[in-house]
Amino acid sequence: MIQNYLGGAWREASATESLPIRNPATGEEIGRVPLSTASDVDAAVQAAKAAFPAWRSTPSPERARVMFRFRALLEEHKEELATQLTIEHGKIIAETRGEVQRGIENVEHACGIPTLMMGDTIEEISSGIDSASWRQPLGVFSVITPYNFPVMIPLWFWPYAVATGNTVVLKPSEQDPLTHQKIVELAEQAGLPPGVLNVVHGGQQVVESICDHPDIVGVSFVGSSRVAEIVYKRAANAGKRVQTLGGAKNYLIVLPDADMDATLDACAGSIFGSTGQRCLAGSVVVGVGDAHPQIRERLMDYASSIRLGDGLVPGTDMGPVISAPHRDRVNAFIDQGVADGAPLSLDGRDASVEGFENGYWIGPSVFEDVAPDISIGTEEVFGPVLAVTTFDTPEEAIRLANDTDYGLGATIHTTGGLHGELKRRAGAHGAEMG
Q: Helix H segments across 256-322?
């Protein structure tokens, strides 16, 4: 059973329930995570609250020195972290190396906090009045993070919070918390004082307790849109500063003048990287006019060639999804797409890997001629599932992307830009008229 980290010490949770942590490639249990209680959250908050006055008074260059040491330790252990992350998450080792590196880059940026925290002054902002502003820490913040980037996303938040003089209670995903346990150990080795960073493991009860706790001044959350809305409302109603990041449905629009080799690389990596389990994963490819058959054929060839397997095995292109329930959820989306009448040109529902029969496998799946109003084309699937459709004009494709209930990302692949495409169409129209 993994432990919570409170006031600079690893402590057993008061929980009576726990969940297994499994290697998604094998289904093997590799640990257990406690479903901590409100009392565990309160203990973490009290530790953070007690640590705040001294840490807030620590000069910012001294806080930055802790971040510099922490960054050096992350660099020293990054291959170990990437390997552990592949074991508990499932993404291939090249992807976990990239994730760890992105996390390190955030810590590196936080090392510049003495400059980033600078205020400003304005003389004579009004007659006889000068103005000055300071950036100051506020107290205890909480960070609630998802399973898909269990190293990078926590490092988006807590290094900045502690570098600025705040203290933190982190609730990592209960599905893959092991790698960040090691990261917390490295932060401790770097000299982060007891109570400045605390970790509480658990599920819904922990999240609700964080939202309600009167001594937490702010919450940062990343997860599904449904839960993001709940966290935002509940924490805001409790008077906290809140930022919540939810789901996405991302459109990749390909114009006829696009460089198809470069476009394939960009689209394929976006769609199938991390087995589609990321907010910026491409979901819908829209081939405009003559671009449609070209990009469709290339994507089908690419998807059909992807090699599933354990992310630590050389030659593997794509790993498993995080869990059996998530595999079933993605398969249900594919089932619904078929029921809605979308042609399924590549079906990954029965995927398996020899020697890893208990893994949570879904092969690349490709739907074609997807209507804009069915779930496979409108909802966030969070798996290696692509919807391909086509329109005659860029304006229609852009309208489709803008009509989504989600946000986050959309790309247009072209060598001449929309202006160039419009000129091309105008020229073709003039030739026809002549």
A: 260-272, 291-305
Q: Give the three-state DSSP class for 14.
A: coil
The amino acid sitting at 169 is V
Helix (H) or strand (E) segment spanning residue 227: helix 225-237
Residue 89 contacts residue 146 (beta carbons within 8 Å): no
Known catalytic residue at 279: yes
Identity of the amino acid at 137: P
**pTM over cut 0.70:** yes
CA 168 remoteness from chain centre: 20
Which is catalytic among the residues 111, 211, 267, 279? 279
Averaged pLDDT in 10-residue chunks for the chain of 434 residues: 97 96 98 98 98 98 98 98 98 98 98 96 95 96 98 98 98 98 98 98 98 98 96 98 96 97 96 96 96 97 98 98 98 98 97 97 97 94 97 96 89 83 48 31
| Contacts (Cβ under 8 Å, ≥6 apart) of 287 | 254, 293, 294, 295, 296, 388, 389, 390
Residue 159 phi/psi, 5-degree rounding, is -60, -40
**Burial label, 124 (beta-carbon count in 10 A; 0-12, 13-18, 19+):** exposed
